[in-house]
């Protein structure tokens, strides 16, 4: 089964109010549809967060990556991935990783669909559901009452953990977490995500105060390219340090692990180069005895986690894309049910294509 053609597209989707920092926040989904000589298709995409930069990734896909893939076997996913990584090596990470991710996800979708398998089964599925935490409803711009109400809603769904965002106003964050702990009780895990907003001194100040409320992890307290800062925080603070959503490949995770800087690895499948690479990162986490908690896009990560059950601590359940897809993920008892249909199962609605496609 060979790839005979591919087309690219961009969807510019509004971000959910409960998580955004600004009123006009949008994300661009840069996608690839691959066609095989057997008539099967595979869909993959990558994610340009916050800024309209999707055309840059689309140009790399159109001009170089897709022509490189056409004519190759759709079953040789790993071979194609390593070839694309090698020929883009001098471009570094970043845009090349984003483009490779879109193709890799499409190839895995194509391969598993042609075999009549779900993506999870194609990857070596072990479990039928995976643990998740409620996320995406904890913006620092929410009122305290709304933050409590939305977080409690996740607990009512059966989730035993929720995540909120901090960092815009550290002193106020302490009050917000204190109220949330009082309302949710001691049995619910609370994660705090600073989105790289803090310097080391402020992160230490905030982390020590958040420790009083037993937070489960402190996520991205400082910039993701500052490994040494993460080391200092990991040594000084009592809670686990989590990061990885802004890292673009396994070498960056290796640097963090070698330095003892992370307790929880949080790769994003769209940023690291696709399913092939995130599976490697999951095995890396297991080899180092670290938790694996992939970031956003639970629609893909639920399949990955189902094949890495002893490694995965949590999948982030962030349902911002639910309004745009035909079959949103199902939640049962605070866990995500692994889809059993062919491929990864994510397909956008006709209305989404008609309304939000910009290229």
TrEMBL record:
Record-linked SMART domains: MR_MLE
Keyword Glycoprotein listed? The answer is no
Where would you find the membrane-spanning parts of this chain?
none
Domain (Mandelate racemase/muconate lactonizing enzyme C-terminal) spans: 144-240
Q: Which InterPro entries match?
A: Enolase-like_C_sf, Enolase-like_N, Enolase_C-like, Mandelate_racemase_C, Mandelate_racemase_N_dom, RHMD-like
Q: Domain of life of the organism in this record?
A: Bacteria
Q: Which UniProt keywords apply?
A: Magnesium, Metal-binding
Coiled-coil residue spans = none
Q: Cofactor(s) for this protein? A: Mg(2+)
Name of this chain's protein? Mandelate racemase/muconate lactonizing enzyme family protein
* Species lineage: Bacteria, Bacillati, Actinomycetota, Actinomycetes, Geodermatophilales
């Amino acid at each position: 089964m060979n790839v005979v053609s591919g087309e690219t597209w961009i969807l510019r989707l509004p971000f959910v109010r409960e998580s955004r920092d600004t009123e006009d926040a949008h994300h661009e989904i840069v996608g690839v549809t691959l066609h095989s000589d057997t008539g099967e298709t595979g869909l993959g995409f990558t994610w340009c967060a916050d800024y309209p930069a999707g055309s840059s990734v689309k140009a790399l896909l159109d001009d170089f990556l897709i022509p490189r893939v056409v004519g190759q076997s759709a079953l040789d996913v790993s071979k194609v991935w390593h070839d694309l990584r090698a020929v883009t090596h001098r471009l570094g990470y970043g845009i090349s990783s984003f483009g490779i991710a879109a193709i890799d996800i499409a190839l895995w979708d194509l391969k598993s669909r042609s075999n009549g398998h779900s993506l999870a089964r194609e990857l070596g599925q072990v479990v039928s559901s995976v643990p998740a935490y409620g996320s995406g409803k904890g913006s620092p711009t929410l009122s305290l009452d709304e933050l409590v109400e939305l977080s409690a809603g996740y607990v009512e769904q059966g989730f035993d953990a929720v995540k909120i965002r901090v960092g815009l106003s550290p002193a106020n964050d302490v009050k917000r977490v204190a109220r949330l702990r009082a309302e949710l009780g001691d049995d619910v895990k609370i994660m705090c995500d600073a989105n790289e907003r803090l310097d080391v001194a402020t992160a230490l100040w905030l982390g020590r105060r958040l420790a009083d409320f037993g937070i489960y992890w402190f996520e991205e307290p400082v910039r993701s390219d500052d490994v040494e800062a993460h080391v200092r925080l990991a040594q000084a603070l009592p809670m686990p340090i989590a990061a990885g959503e802004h890292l673009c490949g396994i070498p960056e995770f290796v640097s963090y692990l070698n330095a003892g800087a992370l307790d929880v690895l949080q790769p994003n499948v769209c940023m690291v180069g696709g399913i092939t690479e995130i599976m490697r990162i999951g095995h890396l986490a297991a080899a180092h005895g670290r938790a694996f908690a992939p970031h956003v896009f639970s629609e893909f990560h639920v399949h990955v986690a189902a094949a890495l059950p002893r490694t995965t601590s949590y999948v982030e359940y962030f349902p911002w894309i639910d309004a745009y897809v035909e079959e949103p993920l199902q939640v049962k008892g605070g866990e995500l049910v692994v889809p059993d249909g062919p491929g990864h199962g994510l397909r956008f609605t006709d209305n989404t294509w008609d309304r939000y496609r910009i290229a």
